[in-house]
Amino acid sequence: MTATNPLLQAFDLPPYSAIRPEHVEPAVDQILADNRTAIAAILEHQGSAPDWSGLVLALDELNARLGRAWSPVSHLNAVCNSAELRAAYEACLPKLSAYYTELGQNRALYQAWHALADSPAAAAFDQAQQTILKHTLRDFHLSGIDLPEAEQQRYGAIQMKLSELCSQFSNQVLDATQAWTKQIGDEAALAGLPDSAKAQMQQAAQAKGLDGWLVTLEFPSYYAVMTYADDRALREELHTAYATRASDQGPNAGQHDNGPLMAEILDLRQELAKLLGFAHYAELSLATKMAESTEQVLGFLRDLAVRGKPFAEQDLAELRAFAAERGVNDLSSWDVGYFSEKLRHQRYEISQEQVRAWFPIDKVLSGLFAIVERLYGIQIAELSDFDTWHPDVRLFEIRENGAHVGRFFFDLYARANKRGGAWMDGARDHWRNSAGERISPVANLVCNFTPAVNGRPALLTHDEVTTLFHEFGHGLHHLLTRVDYAGVSGINGVAWDAVELPSQFMENWCWEPEGLALISGHFESGEPLPQALLDKMLAAKNFQSGLMLLRQLEFSLFDFELHATHGDGRSVLEVLQAIRDEVSVMQPPAWNRFANSFSHIFAGGYAAGYYSYKWAEVLSADAFSKFEEEGVLNPATGRAFREAILARGGSLEPMQLFVDFRGREPSIDALLRHSGLTEEVAA
Predict the structure, then answer these.
(1) Which of 208, 86, 135, 61 has its CA nearest to residue 492?
(2) Class of domain 361-527+613-682
(3) Which residues are catalytic?
(4) Distance CA 108, CA 106 (A)
(5) Out of 201, 322, 621, 656, which could bridge 670 as a Cys pair, Cβ 3.0 to 4.6 Å?
(6) What is the CB neighbour count within 10 angstroms for residue 529?
(7) Domains 259-348+545-610 and 361-527+613-682 are alike in CATH topology
(8) Measured between alpha carbons, how far is residue 5 from residues 11, 28, 339, 387, 422 in Å?
(9) Which GO terms describe its biological process (predicted)?
(10) Buried b (16+ CB within 10 A) or exposed e, 102-127
C-alpha cells in the first residue's frame, strides 16, 4: 500500500486528484505507528540530557509528516465532502485524538521537555525557543499529565468523544443546509432580485436537471433572497428554513438535529475542565489566551454592549419607521435585511448590488496584492500547472527580493458539498528542519462567494471584498513569518484572542480611498470607482453599526456565558434567551434555533472564545490608527507592522508584540471611532 498511497509519499504540494478515501485510514495508521516507534527511540537516545535538535526538532519532523498526510484529507473533507471521504475522515478522528492525548500524558516525554528547560543550554535559547518550552510545559498540564491514571484515561476518552461529536455537528449543519431547496417556476416570485442572483439560481436548477430557478440555503442564494426579494412570504419561508437548520423546528424538524449533540458537547467540556481543576470550561479556555480572567472578558463585552445599545435602539427605531411607511407594521426577522437594504439605498443612494459591478474578482485580487506588496515589500504571482481539488481553485506564490517565501491556494466560490463560511487553513508551516533546510509555508484560503454566471466574471459585493481581505490577513500571518521553529511560526502558538488581529486589520483597506482605488474598476469598462459612489460608500460605512455590534456581542456573550455557567440547570436556549433579554433590541421568533448551526463554537476552535473577534478588533483598529497617522500605504509603517506582528508569530506574548508596534498598550477609542459609536461621530 505504501508504494501506491499518495499520502505516504514525499511531495511538495499535495496530489489532491490522486487522494482517494481508501488511502486515508491506512496512511494515518502507518504514520501513527511509525511515530510511536520513533518517539520511543528519541526518548531512549536522548536520555536524561536532551538537546534541542534531538528532542524538539526530531518531534517536529514527526508532526510534519503526520500533518503532510492529514492536512489535505481534512481540507478535502471541508471543500469536497462525500459520504466515502467523510467516513474515512471520521474513522481517523478517534485515532488522532488518542495519539495526541497519549503524547500529552507521556511522562517520559514530559520529563525530557522538563530536563531540556532546566538544562544549562536553555539559558542561551532565543525568545522563540523559550516560548516553545513554556507553552509545551503548560500544554502538558492541560493534557492531564498531573492526573492519576484513571482520570488520565477519562481525559482521553472525553477528548476522543469530543472530536467525534464536533465533526458530527459540522456534518449535520452541512447536511441540513443541503437538505432544503425550493424550485421556483415563475420568475415573478423572484421580483426584486438582481439578475446576477437569478442567473445563479437558474444555473443551480440546471445543475440538478430542473427547470426554472432553485433557491438554496447556501449563503449567496440565502443572502440574495433575504436582501432583495419583494415577496415577503418567500423571505419568511427561506429564513425559517435557514434559522432552524439542524434542529427540532422548521420544515425539516428533527432531521440532522444538533440539539442532543450540543448538550453532550457541553457536558463533556465541563467535565474536562473540572478534571483539570478549572471551575468551568470558560476558565480552561482562557488558560491559553491573552485575556486574563472570565471577569475581564465579560466586563469587556458588557461595557461594549452598554456603549452600543443606544445606537442599536436608534438603528432599529429608524428601520421600524421606514418599514411602517411601506405597510409593514410588524417588522420581523425576515424583513430586517430587506428593509435595511432599502433604507440604505434611500439614505445613501447605494446598495451592495450596485457596487458589485466595480469589484470583479481579478481587479480585487490585483489591488489586494498591490496593497500588500507596497506595505510589506513582497511580490505575488499566479502559478499554473498544479494539482487541485476543483477547477476554480487558483494558486499564487509570494516572493521577496526574488526569493521564494510561500504559496497559497484560493478556493473562492460557493458550491455543493463545500462547507459554508470563509476560513484560512495553514496547509504547511514555515520552519527549519534538523538538516537546516527551510520548509516554506502553504495556506488554503477558502470563501463562498457567488461564482461567475452568464459569461461575466465573478462580481463581489463590498461585504465579500471585506471577507476576502480578512482571510488574506490570516494568510499573511501564516506566510510572512520569520520564525524558524514550527511551534511558534505563523499563527502557531498565537493566543486565540489575538489571532484575529492581522485579519481584521486588513479589512481597513477596503474602506480607504487609496485602497479602494486599487481594488475597484468596472468589470466592463475598467473605469475606476466614481468619486460620487465612493463618497456614498464611505458615508454608508457605519450604517446600522449599532445593530451589527450588538449582534456580535450577543454571539460572544452567549458563547462565553454558556461555557461559564453550564450545569446551572439552564438549557442552551435559556442561556441564549437570557443574553438576548440583556443585550438585544429585537427578539427573533421563538422557533429560531441559531445555536444549532453555530459551528464556530461547537465544531470550530471558538468555544468560550468567540469574544476574540471583538477583543482583537480593539487591537486591529488601534494598530491601523498608526497608519492613519503616518499614511495608509506608507511602506515604513507597513514594514514595522510586518516585523512586529506578522513576522514574529507566536514567539512572544501578543501584548508585547502590540506594544512593540504601537509604542503603548491598546485603547478602545479607535474601534469606537471606526464603528461610528461615539457621540461626535454619531452627531
Answers:
(1) 135
(2) mainly alpha
(3) 471
(4) 6
(5) 621
(6) 19
(7) yes
(8) 12, 11, 55, 16, 30
(9) peptide metabolic process; proteolysis
(10) bbbbbeebbebbebbbebeeeeebee
How far is 197 from 178, CA to CA, in rounded Å?
A: 18
CATH number assigned to the domain covering 6-104+106-142: 1.20.1050.40
> In 3D, which of 651, 609, 645, 489 has the Cα closest to residue 67?
489
pLDDT of residue 2: 60
pTM of the predicted model, to two decimals? 0.95
- Check: CB of residue 641 under 8 Å from CB of residue 375: yes
Are 122 and 116 in contact, with CB atoms under 8 Å apart? yes
Inform me whether the pLDDT recorded for 319 exceeds 70: yes
The residue among 411, 410, 407, 395 whose CA lies nearest residue 439 is 407
Position 536 confidence tier, pLDDT thresholds 50, 70, 90:
very high
Q: What is the dihedral of CA 185, 188, 193, 194, to 10 degrees?
A: 90
Q: How far apart are alpha carbons 228 and 225 in whole angstroms?
A: 5
Question: What are 676's three cell numbers?
Answer: 461610528
Q: Quote the pLDDT of residue 454.
A: 84
Locate 92 and state its grid cell.
481517523
CATH topology of domain 259-348+545-610: Neurolysin; domain 3 (1.10.1370)
Domain boundaries, the chain: 6-104+106-142, 180-243, 259-348+545-610, 361-527+613-682
Contact indicator for 216, 183 with CB cutoff of 8 Å: no
Q: Please check whether residue 38 is in contact with residue 62, taking contact to mean a CB–CB distance below 8 angstroms.
A: yes
E strands, 308-371, in order: none
Give residue-wise pLDDT tens across range 6-62: 999 999 999 999 999 999 999 999 999 999 999 999 999 988 899 999 999 999 999
Q: Which cell numbers hold the place of 233?
A: 412570504
DSSP label at 458? P
Give Cα separations from 7 to 13, 90, 93, 411, 495 (angstroms).
11, 17, 16, 22, 31
Element (H, E) at 426: strand 423-428
Residue written as cell 487591537?
619
Which position has the grid cell 514527526? 62
Name, in order, each residue with C-beta under 8 angstroms of 375's C-beta and a sequence gap of 6 or more.
633, 635, 637, 638, 639, 641, 642
Cell of 421: 463560511
**What is the β-pairing status of strands 438-439 and 431-432?**
antiparallel
Q: What is the pLDDT of residues 600-627, one digit of tens each?
A: 999 999 999 999 999 999 999 999 999 9
Cα separations in angstroms, 454 against 200, 218, 221, 457:
9, 20, 16, 9
